[in-house]
Amino acid sequence: IDPDPDPAASWEERQRLFDLPRSAWSDYNADLISKGGGVFERKVKSIKLTAEMKNLFGLAQDKAAPQDLITAMLQSPVELLWFGGIGTYVKESGESHADVGDRANDSLRVDANRVRAKVIGEGANLALTQRARIEYDMSGGHCNTDSIDNSAGVDCSDHEVNIKILLGDVEQAGDMTRKQRDKLLERMTDEVATLVLRDNYLQSQAITVTHQFGAHLLDRLARYMRSLEKEGRLNRAIEFLPDDETLIERTNKGQGLARPELAVLLSYSKIQLYDELLASDLPDDPYMEALLIDYFPTALRKAYKKQIARHRLRREIIATVVTNSIVNRCGISFIHEVKEKTGMPSGDIARGYLISREIFGIRELWREIEALDDKVPASLQAIMLAECGRLIERGTVWMLREAGLPLNIVRAIDDYGEGVHVIVDKLSSMISQADNALLSERASGYVDHGVPKDLATRVASLALLSPACDIVRISRGAKIPVEQAGEAYFPTPPGTSWR
């Protein structure tokens, strides 16, 4: 217990203990702990409470049994409650300890509606029951699920296996010794960690963006849940997802799905899309080779490009990369909704997504928006990311309806990319004075919260770019410059607006 910790010193000491073989909390340097704190054995009958501990945990007595002190800690008003060990410590208020099935921690466990932490992180498995997660989140807290908070471990294992398969083939061909392989693996550790953390950053971000639009997206997500049920992929009761009666109640209250519920649905969305993409011919598209190569660390991309291209799990890696990109960037129900609008299979929709992402330059926008972490409100970033997603959806649907099937990704990018970039760069000269004023007004709303002006203008203009591919096609058919086609297309009659 460290009532007023020095974060830098605490970090260094925790790192020392991490590096110390067979370390325990008793090895922690007590001189680094702030006044009133200490390291205490859980086996003692009682712990003497200092004034600082009483204030920190809201206790009045002078002594407390270890389990009572831990229970008070679980309910203290902190920013982050992090679980790193084994056991289920939080249940829903309506659940019994028997429902939880973890007798060893019955004396410590608290109800979710009594947890005052702003955020819960589950480094452990099942630190909360799923019902507890939902109750906590619906009460104003923020949490995901253990599978989301622990997914970096699984992702790291995937990278490790895929890298070792690649280098195993290189080794068998006589182009590398085992000793050389092991040294290379060690050198790539930090970059693999970066790749893994990036994947998990985007996954958590996807939940955050969806959660922010809660009630607005509830009907869409409900339709998607029902479609999963019809296909036999989902049992809402088993996954503690709301039934139709609960969904109606939430609609009336203006509530959406809780983060833990979104986490479950996001997982189902990825599993379904991965299966469908793997069964399609998308992984065999020549365009996918670049995505496959980018999956691996830099040292492997440069030296073993040919070996990566014939990786025995290349199709599975490509399906995984594309699945994560689509669901993380465009949402849980994106594929389902585009299917409803176009009747096209997932493989074709994925091609439309990749084309739209490229021709509208959305990846650069994503990077610029994410560079604003801790500089602008996260809620504003979510709005900006959602605008990017809307344009991709419109572009994807347009490609599927108008560009001709089967979609050729490279050809479509060549056909539309340059023209769309011209429209993006020259938009202000194409649209009317009234639309320019409205564009400036929307951009100012972003700038007022700290978004750079150029980025703010670019994001504000996304709503005007839906007809960009039509304009490019018109310019080609009429054999006129894209700028001229755009100037003829955009002016609106009096009284109309894109607001």
Give a brief rundown of this model.
The protein contains 25 helices and 6 strands.
Structural class: mainly alpha
Strand order of the largest sheet: 1-2
Strand segment count: 6
Major beta sheet summary: 2 strands, antiparallel
Quick one: overall form?
globular
- Distance between the first and last residues' Cα: 54 Å
- The helicity comes to 55-70%
Count of DSSP helices? 25
Measured by DSSP, the beta-strand proportion falls in under 5%
Radius of gyration: 27 Å
Overview of this structure, please?
The chain is mainly alpha-helical. Helix content is 62%, strand content 3%. It contains 25 helices and 6 strands. The chain has helices at 7-19, 51-57, 66-74, 97-100, 130-138, 146-149, 151-172, 178-187, 189-212, 214-230, 244-253, 259-279, 288-295, 298-303, 305-309, 314-330, 334-342, 346-359, 362-370, 378-402, 409-430, 433-447, 453-460, 468-478, 482-489, and strands at residues 47-48, 63-64, 80-83, 90-91, 110-111, 119-122. A two-stranded antiparallel ribbon has the order 1-2. It has a two-stranded parallel ribbon with strand order 3-6. Strand 4 (90-91), helix 4 (97-100) and strand 5 form a beta-alpha-beta unit. The longest helix has 25 residues, at 378-402. The radius of gyration is 27 Å and the shape is globular. It starts with 6 loop residues before the first helix and ends in a 10-residue tail after the last helix. The mean pLDDT is 96.
